[in-house]
Task: inverse folding
C-alpha cells in the first residue's frame, strides 16, 4: 500500500526554483538541474523563509498525527468511524493510519482505503469488506499482545504488501512471566545501562514517542479501563551530566503498584521501552579503587 506522490510545486526564486518535498526543501537551477545545496542568496529570500515556515508547520502536524494515533492504539480508545473517515484525505493522517488492524463490532480487518462508501478492510480471508460509516459507529486498534491469531494477520499483511508506519502487527511483544521471581527480575534487567549525557538519553526517548524527564522515561497504556504507567528510573544530576538507568516500575493513579497487578499490554510496552532505551546505552563497568 503506497501513497501516490504529488508533483512538486516549484517557485521561481532569483534565477533558481524551490519546492517543498515532504520534509525537505529542494532546489534546482533555471535549466531544471537539481542542486545538492541551496545557494546562500536563495536562502536569504522571502520565498525560502516562507517554505521553511511551511515545512515546520507540516512537521509539527505530522508529529501530532503520529502521537494521536499512537495514543489511540496504546489506550485502546474507541474512535468514531466518522472521525477516521474525515481525516483520511489528509496525507499525514493517512500515513499513520493506513494498514492498521482495526476492530469494529463484529468486523476485524486491515485498513486499506476509505471513500464515500465507507472503510474498506482486508479481512482474514484476504477479501475486501466495506464498513459503512455511521454516526454512532466506533473502532479500536487492538494491541498485538491481545490479537488472536496474530501470525495469520502478519502473513496476510506481508502478502498484501502492507507496511504499517504505526507499529502494530510487527510490534515487539513480551509475554509477562508467570513466576513472581522472574517477573521482578525482568524489571531490573536494564540497571547496568549508562549514557554519557542525559540529553542524549532524553532525545532518544522522545524521538521514540516516550515521555522523558530527569526522573525517568514513561509510557502509559489503558488496559481493562485503567491507565497504567511504566517508568524506567534514571539517576542523573542534569541534562549535561551522565545518566544511569535503574529499575522499571509501574504507577496507577499516582501510586506505585506491584507488577503482579499489571496486565499483559502494560508489561509488554514497559519491556519494549526498557529494551529500546537500554540498546542506546553502554554497560556500566566496575572500576578499581584508588
Result:
Amino acid at each position: 500500500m503506497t501513497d501516490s506522490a504529488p508533483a512538486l510545486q516549484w517557485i521561481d526564486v532569483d534565477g533558481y526554483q524551490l519546492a517543498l518535498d515532504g520534509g525537505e526543501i529542494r532546489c534546482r537551477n533555471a535549466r531544471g538541474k537539481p542542486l545538492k545545496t541551496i545557494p546562500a542568496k536563495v536562502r536569504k529570500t522571502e520565498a525560502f523563509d516562507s517554505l521553511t515556515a511551511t515545512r515546520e508547520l507540516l512537521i509539527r502536524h505530522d508529529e501530532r498525527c503520529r502521537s494521536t494515533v499512537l495514543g489511540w492504539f496504546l489506550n485502546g480508545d474507541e474512535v468514531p468511524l466518522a472521525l477516521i473517515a474525515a481525516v483520511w484525505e489528509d496525507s499525514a493522517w493517512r500515513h499513520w493510519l493506513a494498514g492498521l488492524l482495526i476492530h469494529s463490532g463484529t468486523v476485524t480487518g486491515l485498513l486499506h482505503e476509505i471513500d464515500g462508501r465507507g472503510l474498506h478492510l482486508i479481512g482474514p480471508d484476504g477479501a475486501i469488506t466495506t464498513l459503512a460509516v455511521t454516526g454512532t459507529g466506533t473502532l479500536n486498534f487492538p494491541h498485538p499482545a491481545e490479537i488472536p491469531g496474530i501470525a495469520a494477520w502478519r502473513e496476510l499483511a506481508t502478502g498484501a504488501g502492507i507496511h504499517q508506519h504505526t507499529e502494530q502487527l510487527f510490534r515487539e511483544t513480551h509475554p509477562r512471566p508467570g513466576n513472581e521471581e522472574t517477573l521482578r527480575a525482568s524489571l531490573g534487567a536494564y540497571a547496568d545501562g549508562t549514557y554519557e549525557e542525559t540529553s542524549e538519553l532524553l532525545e532518544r526517548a522522545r524521538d521514540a514517542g516516550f515521555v522523558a524527564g530527569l526522573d525517568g522515561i514513561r509510557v502509559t497504556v489503558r488496559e481493562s479501563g485503567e491507565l497504567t504507567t511504566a517508568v524506567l528510573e534514571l539517576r542523573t544530576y542534569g541534562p549535561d551530566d551522565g545518566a544511569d538507568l535503574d529499575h522499571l516500575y509501574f504507577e496507577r493513579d499516582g501510586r506505585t503498584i506491584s507488577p503482579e497487578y499489571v496486565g499483559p499490554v502494560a508489561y509488554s510496552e514497559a519491556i519494549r521501552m526498557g529494551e529500546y532505551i537500554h540498546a542506546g546505552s553502554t554497560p556500566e563497568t566496575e572500576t578499581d579503587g584508588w
Observations:
- Residues 286-290 have pLDDT under 50 and may be disordered.
